[in-house]
Amino acid sequence: MMSELKTIPLMEVPPEVAHRVALLRDLPPGELFIHEIYQSVQGESTFAGLPCVFVRTAVCDSRCKWCDTPHAFAQGERMSRASVLEKALYFGSPLVEITGGEPLLQPDVFPLMTELCDMGKTVLLETSGAHDLSEVDRRVHTIMDLKCPDSGESHRNRWANLACLKPTDQIKFVIASRNDWNWTASVIREHRLDERFQCLVSCVFDAVKPVELADWLLESGLHRVRMQLQMHKYIWDPNKRGV
């Protein structure tokens, strides 16, 4: 089983982006490639405003044009899963988010999330939505992106994941233009997403003004969709790391 797990990162990505996950190729079972682990205030989702421990994995197979964490593409250190768990628990926060990078590229993320749930933590998973969610512990609160066209990665959306999500899970759309908004509204209506999940919309920082997104949302009549801002970028410098 462990030998099968080791091959998952390379099997799940298209050949044309395999070079982006090369750093995971020799990662042995029981280890994770971690960019940073820190405590901050949760800046997004329906958990916004709560103290939260962030476990940020390194490496991502996507290259969203507006990505604000490119430093996680290749910077990190190998840690045993036990060490990651110990450091995440050290802060004492009841809320822990697994983010990236793209967490689901690393097989040991799945048992890590289960171990955190077993310790009584509320666990959030933030994922691009390009990878299979079927093996995620059902106790985890998944926050899944559906990539809009201006991200340059909308072709990677794994629509089959919609069947894996629970009513308590959240779908996030990051809006970089009016075109992105029109696409988002159409997708929400087509799949009745606002009736099945919590839908979140946010604007790319410095690309769309919050007032513009608020106007588009109000005009749309999508009354169950929640607008959010990246709270941490208003509290701290938008380029500051570890917050």
Question: Which structural class best describes the helix and strand composition?
Answer: alpha/beta
Would you tell me which CATH topology applies? TIM Barrel
Q: Rg from C-alpha positions?
A: 17 Å
Number of domains: 1
User: How many runs of DSSP E, i.e. beta strands?
Assistant: 9
Shape call:
globular
- The main sheet orders its strands as 3-1-2-4-5-6-7-8-9
Structure characterization notes:
The protein has 243 residues and is an alpha/beta fold. The protein is built from eight helices and nine strands. The chain has one domain: Aldolase class I (TIM Barrel). The longest helix is centred in the last third of the chain and has 14 residues. It is globular and about 50 Å long.
Layout of SSEs?
Layout: H1 2-6, H2 8-12, E1 31-41, E2 51-57, E3 77-80, H3 81-90, E4 95-99, H4 109-118, E5 122-127, E6 141-145, E7 170-175, H5 178-191, H6 193-196, E8 198-203, H7 210-220, E9 226-227, H8 231-235
Helix pairs in contact: 3-4
Annotation keywords:
disordered N terminus; 21% strand; single chain; 243 residues; alpha/beta; 9-stranded mixed sheet; TIM Barrel; 8 helices
